[in-house]
Amino acid sequence: MKTASAEPVTTTGSIPAAEQAERARVLVVDDDQRNLLAVRTVLEDVGEIVEASSGEEALRHLLKGEFAVILLDVLMPGIDGYETAEIIRSREQTKRIPIVFLSAVNKDAEHLLRGYEMGAVDYVFKPVDPVVLRSKVAVFVDLFAKTKEIERKARHEQALLDAALRANSERLKAEKGLRQAEQRQAAIIQSLPIVLYLEPLECEPRCPKFVSGDLHAMTGYSFADVMEHPDLWIERVHRDDKAQVLAALEERNRTGRLSVEYRWRCSDGSYKFFHDQAVLLNDGDGKPQEFAGTLTDVTERRLLESQLVQAQKMDAIGKLTGGIAHDFNNLLAAVLGGLGLIERRAKLSGDNKRIMVMTKRAADQGSELVRRLLAFSRQQQLEPAALDLEALHEGVDDLLRHTLGGLVELDWSIPADAWKPFADQAQLELALMNLVINARDAMPEGGTIQVAIENRTVTDDDPLPLSEGDYVSLAVIDNGCGIAPDMLDKVLEPFFTTKDVGKGTGLGLSMVYGFAKQSAGTLSLSSEVGKGTRAELWLPRASQHAPERDRRTDEAEPEVLRTLNVLLIDDHAEVRGTTAAMLAELGHSSVEAGSGPEALAILEEQGDEFDLIITDYAMPKQSGTEVVRRSREMKPELPAIIITGYADEAEIGARPAEVALLMKPFTLAQLAGVIRSST
Length: 679
Fold this sequence. Notes:
By secondary structure, the chain is α/β, with parallel strands linked by helices. The protein contains 21 helices and 22 strands. Helix 5 (about 110-115) links the parallel strand 4 (about 100-105) and strand 5. It is elongated, with a radius of gyration of 37 Å.
């Protein structure tokens, strides 16, 4: 018997020593040498580290050999990480190499989604945690090593099989079966760890012969259920996706590949988004044998994409609404100011006085409409107060008069001894409007919606998440289709809706719930399918000393202590003219300017003649805060007032604490009051 020679001895089932010595290679791409050194230090015992300082250098390395995993920096000069990943995924020889992004920023959902779309399998955020990095990379290195081991075994077993073929046909069959088993094992390892399946070439209706993974947890059905009901799969594909899926299967028969996303109804009746992928496997003679594929649940990803689109849409609506409301406030400031001056100066009687009252009421209603628009766009400052329930009743009825239609009736029940809730009236009206519209949509055939007000006291024994004390319950009750028990907890989640596509944003109930929580209350829901729903809004009872909400204009005669010379700045000519007339009515004189630069030029020449600056905030060349800042450089002690049509002080930007803010539209008494407090 011969002794060992320089060449390694190979026996059945063993691997040549030269092949066993190979180490998995890890490509690290970062333009910062310090980061490269740090990653090398952490991973040098995990695999062979290959460094690249740019995307171009990384692509050159990928042409020269195989890698177990690529660690790719997102932000680099030249082509960045996203572009590099896209090029890697577009090349046949590199598209299956796992990519892990290294990032110090861009942790929001939009950038994460972009990274995953470019082919990333994971993210690691800087500064890198060595334990986390080693763990993630070790998984891919181990997977790569196992894949290579399988390939080496396949090559070795093929050599044994060829040798045995000449000696024993039965052994040839056994080794051939072993090789096929190893091919299946390799396919499973390289696939996503969700649900893996093997499907015959000819299978009508479609039915797999092998499934690996937790199919029951994913769909509610077991493999036995699928085998027992062969039509189950196609029957539960969403009807809107069925044509697309069948076309993809036809294409699979021609090309040997399948990749399609569709909705599939699970056993609980809910739909999930599945990504179905498959490739054709050949036998040892190169003949088509079966399809190997993966079924991946991508519902969460699709939901995240949908939420992002909805959030962007609602943000745009909010900005648009706020801008429109600002313009309306400018117009209403001129209208209401002018009407107030006419009413004071002209002695009207009879029909003329009634016309003036009607016109002012219409303008006041316009101001109220703007306030509600701003409340919708979340740009309205909250003003909690003790609310009159009858006034709330009238306000909600006015809002819904043209919305409910002739089939639905709104019935209010307000006890004589009902307590007053403590909340922001505009937000409460909006919340009730949302609840009533939901109730209307649940009764397509029409009916009566009840709004029931009750006094409630909460103790420690109550299950509601409320502090002890007195509350006012406002319940909206319908006898519509109701909500299924498994959906009842979900309807309060943002963007969740049971309505058809295009008929709801999924934000109504979540906005109501958010308002209730901000007001130290809560929203409770109870429903029965086919019988109706009760949505109950709980708000704290107003104390006896709480201020009451009063929207009436203060008509008290303004008191003028002394005559002032005012520098008045507003780019809106009508508003500027009306404000100047109101100042004159108060006994003050004014010099008008249509822009910030014009006003500063006047101030530089006549600065000692002015007692007060009144400036609009939103102007095209210089904002009101900038005008005040520049004027303080020339006249540090000169008082100033900023007027604005925006509803949120955060929109006004930084301003000195002593500079008063007057919201449009304003009355003569309000103007007099802010002048008095500022001078």
